[in-house]
Amino acid sequence: MQQIPVDTAGATLMVAQPPQPKYVNPQAKERAADRQTGEFLMSLDVLFVMNGNAEVIKVTVGESSITGELAIGTPVGLTGLVARPWENEFNGQKRHGISFRAVAVTAQTVGAPKSVKAA
User: Fold this and answer.
1) Beta strand 23-25 with 30-31: parallel, antiparallel or unpaired?
2) Which helix or strand (DSSP H or E) is residue 53 part of?
3) pTM, whole model, 2 decimals?
4) Which end of the chain is more exposed for a tag (fewer CB within 10 A), N or C?
5) pLDDT tens per residue across all 119 residues of the chain
């Protein structure tokens, strides 16, 4: 699967929705896990502001890779953020989009860097 590193230098990042468990099957409450490590995954909405444009992106991260209190409005750093284009077909309809995955999400304090450059 193709991964595109996302450079967050110069962007303002803050929590739009706090982390929630990610589910493979929400009805059955079946948690999503990383295919390589087996670690449970979380997702959170992040407000990404750069060059006068704002976008809310949903970021997936391993449960143990969340550091600090991530309440709405908390500035965050995203370590190793990558974008992954995807496409699938369901009931004869093609869908496509971009998913975002980070190695870690860290709450930032005043005076700390707002973002960490993707690896």
Assistant:
1) antiparallel
2) strand 53-62
3) 0.84
4) N
5) 589 999 999 999 999 999 999 999 888 889 999 999 999 999 999 999 999 999 999 999 999 999 989 999 999 999 999 999 999 988 889 999 999 999 999 999 765 454 444 44
